[in-house]
Amino acid sequence: MRKNQSDVPAVPVIQVIERMFSLIDVLASREEAISLKEISEKTGLHPSTTHRILNDLAVGRFVDRPEAGSYRLGMRLLELGNLVKGRLNVRDAALGPMRELHKLTQQPVNLSMRQGDEIVYSERSGMQVVRAIGGRAALHLTSTGKLFLAADDPARVRSYATRTGLAGHTRNSITQLPALERELSKARQYGIARDNEELELGVRCMAAGIYDDQGKLVAGLSISAPADRLDEGWLPKLQATANEISGALGFKDGVAAVATPAAPASNSPSTGA
Question: What is the CATH number of domain 89-248?
Answer without folding.
Answer: 3.30.450.40
